[in-house]
Amino acid sequence: MVNEDVKPGLTREVLQRDSPVAVYQQVADVLVDQVSRLEPGSRIPTEESLMDEYGISRTTVRKAIETLVVKGLLVRRQGKGTFVMAQRPVKMLNRLAPFMETFTAAGMKTVKGLIEYKWMEKDKSVPAKLVSDDNLVLVIRRSYSSAGWPYAIAEIFIPSHIGRHISLADAERNSIYQVIQDRTLKPLQRAEITVTMHEPPEHLADALNVRGFPMVPRLERTTLGPHGEVLECTVTYFHPKGFEIRAEVATDVSPGQDSVVQTAAG
To answer: What span, in angstroms and rounded, lies between the C-alpha atoms of 78 and 63?
Structure first.
């Protein structure tokens, strides 16, 4: 079998014309080795330079790159090029903790940006569990990025009796958990968390770089105080190729009992 895509006279020795392995896959395998030596967030060579280097067509270059994009090793940025995917942070659902801890634990240098701080009347965009006597809620919208890549955007909804204690400076500097405890002296008791797939909201699609994705992961968290009162509701949208959500659970089986362990992949 001959790979006709390779242009005679320009083929690097690393590409084998008579190999049963498609040329695009050979190029992808070479790129994997190159990517492993680059820093997260680094830009890889342009399509044109790869075409010249390996003497192959643009179609083959794009297929090779797309192979690594699907594997989560590379990410395309419209109008900017293709970059090495930064390390994937893992969000554990086992305990209450500031969102930034997820990135710190992964050893990532992360930028937290305040997109919006505003008061609004409660409408259908506000989680139903949040109760506000005067129908007003404080909305804090934050972005989380690393190496120029957007990982998540969080929309924090706070009832007015708590929100009135939270200033713009508080929202810019500290985690919402820290702010609530410092400003209201209310302890955090527990949180209810729901993870779903959701169509990217139009007002966040560009900031999260998810145009073209029909669905993105959506995590809704409701934090409760010691008497069951709602302290805050946060809705976080994640880039589907840049984040991982995990939980550790124990079996409900007494020692000595026979058990059947079921595993679900998703």
So the answer is: 17
| Candidate ranges 69-78, 82-91, 102-111, 120-129; pick with highest mean pLDDT | 120-129
Instruction: Tell me the average pLDDT of the chain.
Output: 80
- Cα separation, 63 vs 70, in Å, equals 10
Contact 242, 86 (CB under 8 A): yes
Residue 160, amino acid: S
Distance CA 89, CA 110 (A): 11
**pLDDT tens digit sequence for 21-63:** 888 888 888 888 888 788 777 888 899 999 888 888 899 999 9
Place of tokens 């710190």: 104
Instruction: Return the structure tokens found at 207.
Output: 């900031």
Q: Which two tokens stand for residue 4?
A: 């006709």
163 three-state secondary structure: helix
Distances in whole angstroms, Cα of residue 200 to Cα of each of 75, 207, 210: 18, 11, 7
**Is the whole-model pTM more than 0.70?**
no
Q: Please tell me the distance from the alpha carbon of residue 212 to that of residue 116, in angstroms, as a whole number.
A: 24
C-beta of residue 133 within 8 angstroms of C-beta of residue 160: yes
